[in-house]
Write a structure and sequence with these properties.
By secondary structure, the chain is of the alpha+beta class. It is built from four helices and ten strands. The strands form two sheets. Strands 7-4-6-5-9-10-8 form a seven-stranded antiparallel beta sheet. It has a three-stranded antiparallel beta sheet with strand order 2-1-3, covered by helices on one side. The model has no long low-confidence stretch (mean pLDDT about 80).
Length: about 230
């Protein structure tokens, strides 16, 4: 499907001079190109129209796809990060995953968590994430939720209430050695600031979109499949 900005069909935006502008590929095309992926600097976007897809795009009849949860003690960070480094070398697999350093409630003990997704018939590639089981997680779970419940598997990691800041940066590659430094920094942070247990670090990777996806937008990171 590509990114959200690749699937915008039109938008209504209020510009700095107070005009309400309808924009798409034929109306104000330069403005439309800019707001697709370059942020909110060109006005207040009131409405967007997105291209939709049938649920079968996920590779199953009803849109279900396989999701796993794997938790490891933070002392296993080296083993886990080396395996993740190997997995991220294959951006063509129809999958996506989150690698997390966090201290989930109620005990706020630092852990490493991985939440892989597989899009398609998982029975045809059931060994894709077998290596995560082989590492011996202290907790693991598999599920095949419907689309409205896709994020429910992350409830264990979410402290309720309060403001959540979210910062994102693209990565060219995943290196286990750098991830280990991040795990050490998180543990040091918890020692001097216990309230930081409500925060965490997420590394997301996903398979690259098909080459036939239109990328005519101001977004400059279409080739990035790793994010921190």
């Amino acid at each position: 499907m590509g990114l959200a900005c690749d699937n915008m069909l039109s938008a209504k935006i209020v510009t700095a001079d107070g005009r309400l502008v309808y924009t798409d590929d034929e109306h104000e095309p330069d403005l439309f190109w800019a707001i697709k992926g370059a942020g909110f600097y060109f006005g207040a976007v009131l409405e967007i129209t997105l291209k939709t897809y049938p649920l079968t795009i996920f590779g199953t009849d009803d849109g279900r796809h396989w999701i796993g949860n794997f938790l490891y003690p933070i002392e296993r960070a080296e083993d886990v990060s080396k395996e993740v480094e190997r997995m991220t070398k294959d951006p063509k697999s129809p999958s996506a995953s989150l690698l997390m350093i966090l201290a989930p409630p109620p005990h706020f003990t630092p852990v490493i968590a991985i939440a892989p997704h597989y899009f398609g018939d998982y029975t045809k590639d059931s060994k894709r994430f077998q290596s995560l089981t082989d590492l011996g997680p202290m907790f693991s779970k598999e599920m095949t939720p419907l689309v409205p419940s896709l994020s429910d598997h992350l409830d264990f990691a979410c402290g309720k209430g309060g403001l959540r800041r979210f910062k994102l940066t693209g990565l060219r590659e995943f290196k286990a050695a750098n991830f280990l430094k991040l795990a050490d920094l998180f543990q040091e942070l918890l020692q001097v600031c216990p309230d930081a247990a409500a925060s965490g670090y997420f590394v997301e990777w996903h398979s690259l979109p098909p080459s036939n996806i239109s990328t005519n937008s101001a977004f400059s990171h279409h080739d990035v499949h790793l994010w921190l």
